[in-house]
Every structure is written in C-alpha cells, then in structure tokens.
Write a structure and sequence with these properties.
The protein has helices spanning 2-11, 16-25, 76-88, 106-114, 136-150, 172-178, 205-218; strands at 31-34, 37-40, 43-44, 49-51, 93-96, 118-123, 156-161. It is an alpha/beta fold. β1 (31-34) and β2 form a beta hairpin. The protein contains 7 helices and 7 strands; from the N terminus they run ααββββαβαβαβαα.
Length: 226
C-alpha cells in the first residue's frame, strides 16, 4: 500500500505522455565512450554535473540508516524539491553516493528522467574491510547485480566504482601493498603520499600508489571473463 501511494504521488507530477516517453526511451538510450568523450546514441554530449547527497535536517548519514540512500520513495519530499532546482541551474547530470543495492530507486530515476537529469551511481565499496580484495568475486557479483537492475534506465549514465578508494582511510592502499602490488609506505602519509592529499606531483610515490590501487580495483572486472 505504501509503495502504491508513493508511486501515485510521484507519477502524478508527470504528464501521461512524459511517463510514456520514459518507458519508451529505455529501448533507445545508449551511452558509449570514444576515448574520454561520452556519446549518447553516437552523438557527443557535454556533462554539466553536480554531486547530490541530501540528508534530512538533524540526521548523520554516516551512522544512521539509510546511510545516505535518500533516493527511494520514502524520501521523495527531498529530491522532488531539489531536482527541479538543480535542472533549472543548467545541470544535466548528478552523481549520487549512498545507494543500497537492495532498495528500489525506480521512482527517483523516473523523476530524474522527467527533468532531463542523468545519474552517475556510486557503487558502494566502503573500506577494504567491507570489500576484501581477497574475495573479488563477491564484489563483482554485487556490482553486476546493481548494474543489471538499472542499466536500461534512460536516466542512468553510468557508475562510479567506489569513492576515493585511493584515500588511505579506505585501506585499499594498505591492502594492495600488503599483497606486494602497490609500493605504499605509511610513513610517507604525512608528506602527502599514499593518497595524494597534499601532493600535486605527476610522478613519484604518490602518483604511483594511486595508479596502482585503481589498477588493482579495476582488475576485478577481468574476472567476469574467467
């Protein structure tokens, strides 16, 4: 019953034609890349985006459920208020952070599509303790499940695999270094190494450690063909 009421509330803000267009466009929207250029159905697009991570007043999303995932029907008052304002500013893309793999985000994505906003979803990795690199197939399976749920939606531009995984607080640098794959020295952290918090160098321990941890994490995808 709650779902029906929420769905009705959101869809009532969409014209019948627009709601129909959203369903039809799922069959026609295709994002691809050509080098760094993003293409929509073969034509280049220019992304004008903002990060969007709302939270109700007085709530700490780091320690309180739903841990930043305010993109479900339960919190529609937040995004139904914000998304038209973001679109009116001239943005065409938002990147979101908290995204529970088991929650339903269809209404949120439909509303984004109705305001011509594309969405970059962040796949939650957390820390290396939450997503151990020793068992990468578990990570890949969870990611594949999330992509399968929403890949065909016209509002979804793509995914960000984790967030700031090069930061030493997320422990991936340490995990890959312990495996002998990344040459990261914790003693260098104060100098800006191991996460590049202070350093702007193009080469050296800082840049090398960042390249290594992202190469290591992206290597998870190669498991899909093994």
């Amino acid at each position: 019953m709650l779902w029906t009421l929420v769905q009705s509330h959101v869809l009532s803000s969409l014209s019948p034609q627009l709601a129909s267009d959203i369903t039809a466009s799922e069959k026609s929207v295709r994002f691809t890349t050509n080098g760094p250029q993003v293409l929509l159905n073969g034509s280049p697009i220019f992304i004008k985006g903002v990060c969007y991570s709302p939270a109700p007043i007085g709530v700490n999303p780091v320690v309180e459920a739903p841990y930043g995932d305010y993109f479900t029907g339960e919190y529609l008052d937040l995004w139904k208020r914000d998304l038209p304002l973001i679109a009116n500013l001239g943005a065409n893309t938002i990147r979101v952070y908290g995204w529970n793999n088991n929650a339903d985000h269809r209404l949120f994505l439909d509303f984004c599509a109705s305001h011509k906003l594309w969405v970059i979803i962040t796949f939650f990795l957390g820390t290396a303790k939450e997503s151990p690199i020793d068992d990468p197939r578990v990570i890949l399976d969870a990611f594949s499940s999330q992509v399968a749920s929403y890949a065909g939606h016209p509002a979804v531009l793509g995914w960000s695999f984790g967030n700031e995984i090069n930061g030493n607080w997320n422990l991936f640098l340490q995990a890959f270094s312990d495996k002998g794959k990344c040459n990261w020295n914790p003693e260098d952290a104060g100098a800006g190494h191991g996460g590049c918090l202070q350093s702007t160098e193009a080469r050296g321990p800082c840049a090398d450690s960042i390249a290594c941890v992202y190469k290591g994490s992206s290597g998870i995808f190669f498991l899909s063909s093994t």
